[in-house]
Amino acid sequence: MKIEHIAVLCGGPSGEHEVSLKSGSSVADALREHFPRVDRIVLDGRDFTLPLGVQCVFNVIHGEFGEDGTLQAELERLGVPYVGSGPAASRLAMHKVESKRVLAEAGVPVLPDWVLGRDASIPADLAVPFVVKPAAGGSSIGVTIVRDPGKMAAALDVAFELGLEVLIEPYMSAREFTVAVWGERALPVVEVRPKAEFYDYRVKYTAGCTEYLVPAPVSEAVSSRFQEIGYRAHRALGCRHLSRVDLLWDEATDRAVVLEVNTLPGFTATSLFPKAAGAAGIPFPELCRGLVLQAMDDFSTIKG
What we know:
By secondary structure, the protein is α+β, with helices and mostly antiparallel strands. The protein has 3 domains: 5-84 and 284-303, Rossmann fold (3-Layer(aba) Sandwich), CATH 3.40.50.20; 92-109 and 173-279, 2-Layer Sandwich (D-amino Acid Aminotransferase, Chain A, domain 1), CATH 3.30.470.20; 114-170, Dna Ligase, domain 1, CATH 3.30.1490.20. It is 33% helix and 24% strand. The chain contains 9 helices and 13 strands. Strand 1, helix 1 (17-31) and strand 2 (37-43) form a beta-alpha-beta unit. The relative contact order is 0.16.
């Protein structure tokens, strides 16, 4: 079947709305090099209507609604093929607590953690420094590194603004890497070197605030190991088409852990997934086209 009409969904109700708009523009422009009609549809909330004749949806709505399985379930109800993981994997990956449990059970290395509800007591064995983050969400929104116990309450307040549970992890002083998985293939590893102390929302999406090294300057053995860990994490959560797996590596001890799995990574000019694809010789328009073809093939297989 000839593919002629694609819809790119962007925006959405989450705090990552502006980033999603940038991803949407980048993806729509790329897809127009391959398909006759590409509609960029901006959502301000959760409501949307697809134009008649749309054959595939390329969703880049990050965070709430677009990344947590809600939109995916609606697209499946409509019977429309879409790029990315299904409802169950999307929901699981967005919830850091549950996804870490699944990863650990699959033998994927992760950090120890404490999970707090609003009325829970702070663990007595908690030692600074540590990281406080919402149990669900992305783009490092609501994440705080706590070095002074006196600032714990403020960090919890920030995280609880975004959900009913908070995840606390020991701070690991280490190099940061990311592994992009495209289909059944782990792409070249990217090292992330933020110029600030923490790779937060502002640093992630501001040009010039972070140095990205791709391929990462590590040995072939280490790179292959990271790719293997990333692919295992992708498979453990049941991801489909694409994901980006963030890792920390303590070079002195050779300890590597997975921070999180992103089922809907950014697709802006500064995003890591396109950088990894570029290092593998895959131009951005071809990357986006390939994802559409994967989505259509999967839909045809399921439908058939």
